[in-house]
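@channel anyone free to eyeball this complex?
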Amino acid sequence: MLAHEEQTRVKAPAQVTAFKKGNEMAVLAAKQINYHIMGYYPITPSTEIAEELDELYSQGQIQTKLIPADGEHGAAGICFGASTGGGRVLNATSANGLLYAMEQLPVQSGTRFPMVLNVVTRSVSGPLDIRGDHSDIMMALNAGWIILLARNPQAVYDMNIIAVRIGEHPDVRLPVIVATDGFFTSHQKRRVQYFEDDQVVRDFVGQPHMPITSLDPSQPVTIGAYMNDPDLINNKYQLKLAMDAAERLLPDIFAEYGRLSGRTYPLVEGYRIEDADATLFLLNSAAEAAKDAVDKLRSEGHKVGVLSPNVIRPFPAAGVRRRLSGVKAVLIADRADSYGAHGGNMALEVKAALKDDPRNQTLCLSRVYGLGGKDFYTEDAEQLLKTAMAAAELGRVEIPFDYLGATAGDSQVRPERVQAPLRKEDVSQGLVKAEWDEEAGKVKVSGAGPRQLTAIPDRIAPGHGACPGCGIFPTLSQFLKGIEGHVVLLFHTGCGMIVTTPFPYSSHRVTYIHNLFQNGSATLSGLVEMYRERARRGELPGDEITFIMVSGDGGLDIGMGPLIGTALRGHPMIVLEYDNQGYMNTGHQLSYATPLGDATSTSHPGRFQSGKTFQQKDTPQIMAATHIPYVFTSVEGLATDLVRKAAKAQWYVRHGGFVYGQTLSVCSLNWRYNERIGTKVVKAAVDSCLFPVYEIENGKTAITYDPEARGKRIPVSEWLAMTGKSRHLLKPDYSDTLHALEQEVERRWRRLKAMHEHPLL
Amino acid sequence: MVMSPPSLPKTNELGFYEMRFDSVGGLGANLAGQLLAQAAVLGQGLNGAHFSSYGSEKKGSPVKSFVRLGPPDRELRTSNPVDRPHLLAVFHHCLLKVAGTLSGLYPDSILVVNVPDAVDDVRERAKLPSGTLAVLNALDIAVQENTRINTAILGAIVKASGFLDPSAVKEAIANSFGKNHPDKVKSNLKTFDRGFNEVKIKEFPFDGRFEPIPTTRYVPPWGYANAPIGGIIINPGNTVLKDLSASRQGIFPLYHRDRCIDCGLCAMTCPDYVFVWDRVTDKGGHTNMVLRGPNLQYCKGCLKCVEICPVEALTEECERPEFRFTGDPQLWGPIEALVDLERDNEPAKWPQEEGAWWRRVG
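replying in thread with the prediction:
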C-alpha cells in the first residue's frame, strides 16, 4: 500500500524509446552519470564503451577524462588511484583483461573505494576465443566486489545507474561490477528506454560523497597500510559486513529505481516458478531465452519455471532458498566450469544455499553449456527443462553433472597433413649471406634480388584470412626469406595471429605458438632456454632453430615490460614488430605507437579533441637503450632492405644476441586509403621521416635509407594526406596538432642524423 | 510519428518474423540490418532486435546479420541467430555456392540476391525448390550512384517483404548518413529507391525440380573424441584448402605471360602469397625462377601487384563471364613440397570445385 501511494506521488520522468545494444546503453548511463575518470584498456567485446565515450568527449557531450592504459593492470591502477581522489570512476573490460586486472580488484575492495566496472563477459583464453561465456566473471566471485547482472540491453542501462547508488552507500562503500553477456547482449540492438533528462539520473545517483579522499591536505590519510595478522581478518570482516549491508539495501534501491523508471529488479527473479516442479537456474541472456521454453512447456501442461539472479555478489541465498523450497528438481546451468568441482560455480552456490534449509528436498542437477559463445537456443533450454522434469518425476538424479552441447566429432575425420614439413635444405639455399666484416666492425650482407628470392618457400601458407591489402604478410614474407634453416614462430595476439590460425586451420608451415599480448617475449625466452638446455644435455641437436616472436597491433604497449626484461636478459631470439599504429584486430583503438593527432576509435577528432593527444612511442629507441647488439627498422617495398636486415638479425642471434626489429605495416582496413597503394603509403611515411629506416648495430646508428640524401624527402603533411586516419590534420582547426607533430618528427630525425654521424651517440 | 504497427505476414512458433543477411565483411550487411530493424521498431512500432555474427574486425570474411521482428507487445527474449529466415538476403552471389547459405529457408521464404543475372538463371544457380526470388544488380547501382551496395539491397528487401515501410527505412538511412556524411544522404536515398524499383521479383511454386533445402547447423568435424588435446593443430599450412575467392569484390589481377619479365616484385608485395613460380633450367644449364601466375583461389583482389608491376603484366579486370575458372589441380598452390609426394607417391586430391584459376576464354 505504502509503495503504491508513493508511486502515485512521484511524477514519472519522461523516457525516450530507442533501439540500442547493451554497450550503447552502458555508454548512455555513463554519459548521464558523467564520471570524472575512465581508465581503460581495449578488449573485445567491451571496447565500444570506451570508444563511444571518447566520441562523446570529442563532441563536448561529457567531461569524463578517458585514460588509455598500457594494459588492464595499468587501467585498474589508474582507476584505483583516481577513486581515492573522491570522484567517480568507470572501467570496462572482458575475459583475460579482467584476469590481468584481477590483482588490483581486491586492492580496490579491500581499501573500500567505490567505482563501477562493466564486465562484458567473454570466454577466458586459451585457446583464444572472443565470444561470450561466463568463465571471466566467475573468476571475480572472490574479489570483494558487488556483482550486478544485466540480462538485456535495458538492464545494462538500469544496472549501471543502480551500481553507483549501491556502491557509494555509506554502509557499503564497495566497488561494483555490472556483468553483461558479451555479444548476446553487448552487441544486440533491442527496443529500450532511457530518461530523457540527464538530471533525472544525476538526481538518483546524487553527488558523490566520499568521506575519505587522498586530495584533502587538511585531512591527511594513509591509504594502504601494511597490515598483517591479527588485523587483516578484521578488515575482511568489515568487507563481509559491507556485503551484508548491500544485500539488505539493494531491494530498497531497486524499488526506488522501479518507482522512477517503471522497471523493477528483484534480487532473484522467478518466472512462472510458483507451482513449478522443475526449474532452471540460469544467468543473464540465457535465462531470458529459457522463458520462451517455459511458456512452451507450460502450454503443454508441464509445471516448469526459471529462476535467475540479478545480483550474484552478494549471492541472494535466502531468495534462492525460498523460491526453490517447493521445487522438486532444479537444473543449474553454468556458462563456465569450475574444473574438478563437479559443477559450475552457480551450481555449487545454489546447492550450498539449499543445504542451509534442513527441510529442503529439491534435487539439484548441474550442467555446463554455451562455452566460448556457443549459442543457447530455446530448444536447448527445453531440453534442460525436460532433464529437470525427468529427475522430478523419477525422484532422483541420474547424472548429477554433465556438459550440454559438446560434440564428439566425426569419427571418419583423421588428422592428415596436406603439406609436408619444410626441409632444412628448402629454406637454406644460401641466397642471402651474412658475414662479419672485421674492417667495418659490423655484419655485411650480400644477397639475391626479388626474383631469386621466390625460390625460397614461404613459411606461411596462402589461404589465411587477412583483409585484402594487409601489410603484415608482405612484411613477414620478406623478413622470413632472409632467415635460413628451421624457425619457430611465436605470435602475440593480434591480426597476424587471428587470421593465420582459425581452428582447425593453420597457415603456419613451421611450429608456431600463440600467447597473449603481454607475454610473448617472456614465453619465447623460456622456450629458447629449454632448447639450449636440452641441446646442452644432448637431447636435441643445437643451433638448428631460429626463434622469432612477431608482435603488432599495439602488442608492445601491454607487452613492453616482458620485452625489456627479455632484452636485458639477452636470450638469442628475434622480436619483429609489425607496427600498424593501432590496435587493429579490435577495431582501431589508439596504441602508444599511434602518431599524434591520428583519428582512431578511442581518439576521435572533434571540437574538443584533435585525435590522439600524445606523441607516438619510439620503440626502437627504447630497445636501443637496453644495449642489445642489433636494432633495426624497415618497411616492405624498400627493395630487399628487410630481407638483408633479417639475415643480419639471424647472424646476431646465432652469435648469442637478442634482436629487435620494427617495420611500419599498413592496415588496409583502418588506415582508410585505397588498398592497392599500400607500398606507396609506407614509403611516404619513410620519405616524410615520420618512420626513419635505420639500424643500430653494437651501439652504432646507421640510417640505411636517407630520404634527404636521396632528394626524396616530403613534408609530413603529404603522408598525413594519404590516409583517412590522419587527413583531418590538414584542416586549419587542427593546425596546432599538425605543427606539434611536424616539430617532433623533425626533432627525432635530426637527433637520429646526429647519431648516424657520431659513433658514440 | 509511429503509425499503427503493421501485421507480420508470417511468424515462427515464437511469434517472430525473422531475416538473415548472408554477406562478406565490408559490404555493409551489418549496417543494413541495423537500419532496417531500427526503422521497423522506431518507425513502424514493431518490437525487434538486430545483431550480427561477430568475429574479429576484418574485411573479406563471411558475416551474417540478423533481424528479428515481433508485434509491439511481444517481449523479446532469445538472442539466438536466425536459423529459419522468412527472408534471406545474399549480398554477394559467390555465397550461393557456400554450404549453408540457403540453410533453413521455408518453402515460401523470400530470397533476395545481389547478382547481375536474370531471375530464372539465379533460381537454377541457387537450386531453389520454391519460394519468392528477388534479384537485383546492386553492384551496378552502387557504382553508378557512387554509394555502397547495402542501401540498394535494402530497397529490394523492403519491396520484397511486402510489409516494411520504405519511408521509415529512408528516414533511418537519412539519419544514419546525416550524422557523419551529410553529403551522402541524397545518393543513398536514390540508391535505396533504385533497389526498390529495379528489383525483379518472381514466385516459384514447388515443381519438384530441386530438393527441399534442409536446415543445417554447423557441427565441427573435430570434437572432443578426435581433436588433439589442447587445441593443437597438427596439420601445418592447411589453410591452402581454403577458397577465398568470395573475398574479392568483383575485381582480380589478370596475368599476361607475354609481358612478364619475372622480376618478382608482385611476389614481394602480395599479402596473400598467390604467385606460383616454376624453377626452369635453360639450355645453358642455368636455372631460374619463372612466374606461372597468380592462384586466384587465395587472391582477395587488393591489386597491390597490379600497382607494383613495372610492365603491366598484371592488369585489373572485372570478373566477367568471359573469364572462368579452369580448376586444373596441377596448377595449384606453391609447388614445392605442397604435398608429401614422397610419402604416398600420388598427387594430392584437391576438391575440384575449389580450383580457381581464371583464364580468358576465347
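from a first look: Residues 29 and 326 of chain B are 31 Å apart (CA to CA).
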